[in-house]
Specification:
This protein has 2 domains: about 70 residues, Multidrug-efflux Transporter Regulator, Chain: A, Domain 2; about 180 residues, Antibiotic binding domain of TipA-like multidrug resistance regulators (Globin-like). The protein contains 13 helices and 2 strands, in the order ααββααααααααααα. InterPro entries: DNA-bd_dom_put_sf (IPR009061), MerR-type_HTH_dom (IPR000551), MerR_fam (IPR047057), TipA-like_antibiotic-bd (IPR036244), TipAS_dom (IPR012925). This is MerR family transcriptional regulator. Keywords: Activator, DNA-binding, Transcription, Transcription regulation.
């Protein structure tokens, strides 16, 4: 079955554990036996996975007689279109970085227009919260370090930062779609990248400080709304993953 479908044995075992693909029978030695019907079901599972559906959604479509497969596919089409927009934004960022590398772009972020900022941050204007951030954290070392760093960043720097964060976000979403627990090693690996990204571009952050930041993602509706634009529930998943990662440090 693994060879026919070109999936790993581990994947088949995982689908069995989830109740997504139960083998029709087992041998006396407890080997799984798959029927032609099982192969057809696996084919549909792999098709839906290729479209980006989460495993629990696939199971609902296949097992729930009242599930609306057409509506599910339409929803997934919308999600894929949104992902395509993010991918295009990353391509645009790469084009900007290439132009910078070739000496065609040297604009500093302080020279950007409102339109530039809106496009760069997907409609989010960081200047609207600049005073609030200064009032809350202006006296901290982290704020001073961040302010000193970001004022030197050019537009191409911001494009690169955005592209890297988009990749991290997509990795979180991929784990969510696969049903991977936030406390898993896979999630911790992404959190480590996220933490390194923050330390590289903004300020030196201890794991405990990063945990405090992650609590804001779920406790401040503005953060939640902005993060969940990529996928509903993403803010909560990221926050839980960070909290789990910090406990391991």
């Amino acid at each position: 079955m693994s060879q026919l479908a070109r999936v790993s044995i581990r994947t088949l075992h995982h689908y069995d554990e989830l109740g997504l693909l139960r083998p029709s029978a087992r041998t006396e030695g407890n080997y799984r036996l798959y029927s032609a019907g099982d192969i057809q079901r696996l084919h549909r599972i792999l098709m839906f996975r290729e479209l980006g559906l989460a495993l629990h959604d696939i199971r609902a479509v296949l097992d729930d007689p009242e599930a609306d497969e057409v509506q599910t596919l339409k929803l997934q089409r919308h999600l894929l279109q949104e992902r395509a927009k993010r991918n295009q934004a990353m391509l645009d960022a790469l084009e900007t970085l290439l132009a910078a590398a070739e000496g065609e772009l040297t604009m500093n972020v302080n020279d950007m227009t409102k339109e530039d900022l809106s496009k760069l941050f997907d409609g989010f204007d960081p200047t609207e919260y600049e005073q609030e951030a200064k009032d809350r954290w202006g006296e901290t070392d982290a704020y001073k370090q961040s302010a000193e760093r970001v004022k030197r960043y050019t537009k191409q720097d911001w494009e690169g930062i955005k592209a890297k964060m988009a990749a991290i976000t997509d990795a979180y979403i991929g784990l969510m779609d696969a049903g991977t627990p936030p406390e898993s090693p896979e999630a911790s690996a992404i959190v480590a990248q996220h933490h390194a990204h923050q330390c590289r571009w903004y300020y030196d952050s201890s794991p405990a400080m990063f945990a405090n930041v992650s609590e804001m993602w779920v406790n401040d509706p503005r953060f939640t709304k902005n993060i969940d634009k990529a996928r509903t529930g993403l803010a909560a998943y990221q926050s839980a993953a960070v909290q789990a990662w910090v406990k391991k440090q």
